[in-house]
TrEMBL record:
Species, as recorded: Zophobas morio
Occurrences of domain Helicase C-terminal (ranges): 272-449
Annotated GO CC locations: nucleolus
The protein's name in its UniProt record: RNA helicase
InterPro entries on file: DEAD-box_helicase_OB_fold, DEAD/DEAH_box_helicase_dom, HA2_WH, Helicase-assoc_dom, Helicase_ATP-bd, Helicase_C-like, P-loop_NTPase
GO terms of molecular function: ATP binding; double-stranded RNA binding; hydrolase activity; RNA helicase activity
Catalysed reactions listed for this entry: ATP + H2O = ADP + phosphate + H(+)
Length: 707
């Protein structure tokens, strides 16, 4: 392998130029650059003689049952079962892809260790819960469908039945279930998987299952077995929290991975991804697949599009390319296609979010391209802003990504960052609970009669974040005072919705404004990934055809207009979505979410009334939950948030971009070069005093309307 090579393309990859004549540019990777030899993923000597079973062309020839017996976890089956039998709590660590998630629940079920109860396995992401359940049902064979022995439950979707023994679910779902039954009596075995990710929900579940286990034992109820599974993690820390429980390490089969860093930093990592992919594509034999790590749907679709486009160019050397994408908002069938081996003489490239880091394993991967970034939600109690921010990954994540290339044989990883950038990354990822808005968690814990300040967290969140959460709950009317351990009747209603408390509040306020019909739609559309498609080369076209939906009131009403027309198109849904650049699967998902939210509303005795064309009602209603998200235009033409006086700007994707309404309500903040507000509505300052009088006592506005 060359230690250096030139890449095709430059920072602004110009497709046309590329098509005519690929020009070498000074984009370089180096292994030698910087300190010596990168860490290699070690080969497990004991297993080196075994065939690299799914490697290259052999991968089509092995039956699904045979595949199971080749997994590293298979040899340890009896030992594992024995340990599980003997321990009420057990930590199981193992390399990604060793078979923990798919096999261990099946072993437990075969040995009937769960007795009369169910085995619940949590996943931080819905994509993983769904795709793994499908895979495991397939492994059961005998015409078993998902929802029979194996099922899954994710927000807004429950595919289980009375027959279900093994239930994959998101950690958020299990937490919701805990609110209705804190002892989780449905389960006799709970596996908290991907524990190293330390998502906020998993962290809260640690405490919940620990208590449930203790209480069940004290009350002589069916015992609860707890398994904590993860890739690599700080075992001591985990073990100590779980009363010094035992930990077992499953050695996986891994092979060395060659690692390359770029010689200089690349801010435009999307372009660098495409260029690096084609460099690999020209040189590597077919059937050596490539996995690209990017941060989110938009980016992934853009890069996938470019690769598809360039791949069709007759001048581009290499085998035919099959491009797959993997991100949260995809429908399950499409997600599953990622796992299908491609026909011989083809190259599969998977463009994925960090989901492919540890939660799902795809066979046949020989090359990794790691952009070095991840999209994460961060909350700053001091500024009161919760940001969706693309940020650097941790070194731990970088190693996980790298390791994906060495599963079946030696691999290569191209890191689109320099060695010194790598060295500046944080060693490990900070638990989400220490960097997220805790309002939802505080509310959920209150529903369990627990005050977040006194909860047994593995790592305590900062106290000011907890205080801020209680202040928000008070302003939303879910509690009477910040010391309160009891919910108000409104708070109890809020808990019924699988939503952020602010959005539950909006739905619950709708009867005051007679617009539940409309806000159900808006909240549903905000609960899914964007329904608006803006292909990079057709942005203007998309905007012009959607112009008729645009509302001077902002994005929420615009979305509502789109949904209203969509609901009336009848048969030709696909054609209509195509014509208007609407992401059909996302809008269909929003429709599904809407049905379920409507169902909860009806069950709570709410009337579904419509305000017709009175959009003031909708915007006022939105303000009941989002009054803390208002920005005001100042004399210097700058927007400043009322809450913590942050300077912010309107995101270019907003229909209000280029206009300067006095007051805007925002749904989301994204930080790139600046703090941008997304999904906006214009609001009237008088409404603020009318709707959130308590809040406005401490948050005065600076300008008068006429200034
Ligand atoms: O949990 P862990 O990372 O240890 O491994 P796993 O998710 O149980 O995956 C075990 C094996 O099943 C891997 O080799 C995957 O390639 C395979 N698998 C698959 O082929 N299709 C899926 N949908 C899920 C897993
Ligand atoms: Mg797993």
């Amino acid at each position: 392998m060359d230690s250096k090579y030139n890449l095709i393309g430059n920072n602004k990859l110009n497709i046309t130029k590329f098509k005519i004549k690929p020009k070498p540019t000074p984009v370089l990777f180096s292994k030698k650059n910087g300190p010596p030899s990168p860490k290699k993923i070690k080969l497990n000597e004991n297993e080196s003689n075994k065939s690299s079973y799914m490697n290259g062309n052999n991968k089509f020839k092995i039956s699904i049952q045979e595949q199971r017996t080749k997994l590293p976890v298979y040899d340890k089956k009896n030992k594992l079962l024995d340990l599980i039998r003997r321990n009420n709590t057990l930590i199981i660590m193992g390399e990604t892809g060793s078979g923990k998630t798919t096999q261990i629940p099946q072993y437990i079920n075969a040995a009937k260790l769960q007795n009369e109860g169910r085995i619940g396995i949590t996943q931080p992401r819905r994509v993983a819960a769904v795709s793994i359940a499908m895979r495991v049902a397939q492994e059961y064979g005998n015409g078993q469908q998902v929802g029979d022995t194996v099922g899954y439950t994710v927000r807004f979707e429950d595919v289980t039945s009375k027959r279900t023994k093994i239930k994959y679910l998101t950690d958020g779902m299990l937490l919701r279930e805990a609110m209705f039954d804190s002892l989780l009596m449905e389960y006799t075995v709970i596996i908290l998987d991907e524990a190293h990710e330390r998502t906020i929900h998993t962290d809260v579940l640690f405490g919940i299952v620990k208590t449930a286990q203790k209480v069940r034992e004290a009350k002589n109820f069916a015992p609860l077995k707890i398994l904590i599974m993860s890739a690599t993690m700080d075992v001591d820390h985990f073990s100590k929290y779980f009363n010094d429980c035992q930990a077992v390490y499953l050695e996986g089969r891994t092979y060395p991975v060659n690692i390359f860093h770029t010689v200089r930093p690349h801010d435009d990592y999307q372009t660098a991804c495409v260029a690096t992919f084609f460099k690999i594509h020209r040189e590597a034999p077919a059937n050596q697949d490539v996995l690209i790590f990017l941060t989110g749907q938009e980016e992934i679709e853009a890069v996938a599009h470019q690769i598809r486009l360039l791949g069709k160019d007759p001048e581009v050397e290499g085998p035919p390319i099959r491009v797959c994408t993997l991100y949260a908002a995809q429908p399950s069938t499409q997600q599953m296609s990622v796992f299908n081996p491609s026909p011989e003489n083809m190259r599969k490239v998977i463009v994925s979010t960090n989901i492919a880091e540890t939660s799902v394993t795809i066979t046949g991967i020989k090359y990794i391209i790691d952009c070095g970034m991840v999209k994460a939600r961060t909350y700053h109690p001091a500024t009161g802003l919760e940001l969706l921010k693309v940020q650097r990954i941790s070194q731990e994540q970088a190693w996980q990504r790298t390791g994906r290339a060495g599963r079946e044989s030696e691999g290569t990883c191209y890191r689109l960052y320099t060695r010194s950038q790598f060295e500046m990354m944080q060693k490990s990822t900070i638990p989400e609970i220490q960097r997220a808005n805790l309002t939802s968690v505080a509310l959920q814990l209150l529903a369990l009669d627990i005050h977040a300040l006194f909860f047994d967290f593995m790592d305590k969140p900062p106290e000011d974040a907890i205080t801020a959460a209680f202040e928000q709950l008070k302003l939303l009317g879910a509690i009477d005072s910040v010391e309160s351990t009891a919910l108000t009747p409104l708070g109890e209603q809020m808990v019924k919705f699988p939503l952020d408390p602010r959005f539950s509040k909006i739905l619950l306020s709708a009867h005051n404004f007679g617009c539940l019909e409309e806000v159900l739609t808006v909240v549903s559309l905000l609960s899914v990934e964007s329904i608006l498609l803006s292909p990079p080369n057709k942005k203007e076209q998309a905007n012009s055809v959607r112009q008729k939906f645009f509302s001077a009131f902002g994005d929420h009403v615009t979305l509502l207009n789109i949904y209203r027309e969509f609901s009336n198109v009848g048969q030709n849904m696909r054609g209509w979505c195509h014509e208007h650049y609407i992401n059909m699967r996302n809008i269909l998902q929003a429709r599904e979410v809407r049905c379920q939210l409507e169902d909860i509303c009806r069950k709570s005795g709410m009337t579904i009334s419509s305000c017709g064309s009175q959009m003031d009602q909708v915007r006022k209603c939105l303000l009941t939950g989002l009054f803390m998200n208002v920005a005001e235009l100042h004399r210097d033409r700058q927007y400043i948030t009322l809450d913590k006086r942050q300077v912010v700007s309107i995101h270019p994707s907003s229909v209000l971009h280029g206009q300067q309404p006095h007051f805007i309500l925002f749904t989301e903040v994204v930080q790139t070069t600046k703090c941008y507000l997304r999904l906006l509505s214009t609001v009237d300052s008088d409404w603020l005093y009318e709707i959130a009088p308590d809040y406005m006592r401490t948050h005065s506005i600076k300008c008068t309307k006429d200034s």
